[in-house]
Design a protein that fits this description.
The protein has two helices and eleven strands. By secondary structure, it is of the alpha+beta class.
Length: 211
């Protein structure tokens, strides 16, 4: 192969193999959004990681910067409040609490602590009573799941030789729980339609009897 062609081809192959980091990121949360997590611990986690419950509140959103108030409850009952600043463009994401919304399988985003992270999968999963489109990725020995529409972390699984931590969303105001597999607006709309049909049928039967 001609040397003039050989090296550009090699560089292109390397570039594609490490993934292309997205240049545009979409904030999917807004001020007032909140999410609560339940945490299951096993073994002996490092000091400071004995969290059994946590809550994240979105305090403000400015451009690609998101301020979060994180409240953590430890195994001994101690509560700790902390405020952290996320930045989707620079990769300042804490422990991957929030990523860009609307990522697809194969997309890559930056993380200060984990390097470039590649979305490995997109699937439907149920969280906080609703079926959601969820993206996932592996980083630093852990598996993370995020709600695709909002970019919020909904589940994290960390398994090591001495301990494991499994965090999963418990409650949120970012979406409503489904009723019998339907969004509340559709469920109650269906109830209204059934009630209207029943009333119409009852009225029809009453009129027939009068005739």
């Amino acid at each position: 192969m001609d040397r003039k062609i050989f090296w550009p081809v090699i560089l292109l192959a390397v570039f594609l193999s490490v993934g292309i980091v997205r240049s545009e990121f979409t904030v999917g949360v807004k001020e007032g959004d909140w999410i609560e997590y339940r945490v299951l611990l096993a073994g002996t986690p490092p000091e400071g990681h004995e969290v059994v419950w946590a809550r994240s509140d979105v305090i403000s959103v400015q451009g690609k910067t998101i301020d979060l108030k994180i409240t953590s409850e430890f195994a001994d009952g101690t509560l700790l409040d902390d405020t952290v600043t996320m930045n989707l463009e620079t990769g300042q994401l804490g422990d991957l609490f929030i990523i860009s919304a609307n990522l697809q399988e194969g997309d890559v985003f930056p993380s200060v602590y984990h390097g470039n992270v590649t979305i490995a999968n997109l699937e439907e999963r149920t969280y906080a009573g609703a079926t959601r489109s969820v993206v996932s990725a592996a980083a630093a020995g852990s598996i993370y799941f995020w709600d695709q529409d909002t970019g919020i972390l909904v589940e994290g699984i960390s398994e090591f030789s001495e301990y494991s931590i499994h965090s999963s969303i418990d409650k949120t105001n970012m979406w409503e729980s489904e009723i019998l597999g339907l969004q509340p607006v559709f469920f109650y709309g269906l109830i209204l339609i059934i009630a209207a049909v029943a009333l119409a049928l009852a009225a029809f039967l009453v009129l027939r009897r009068k005739d």
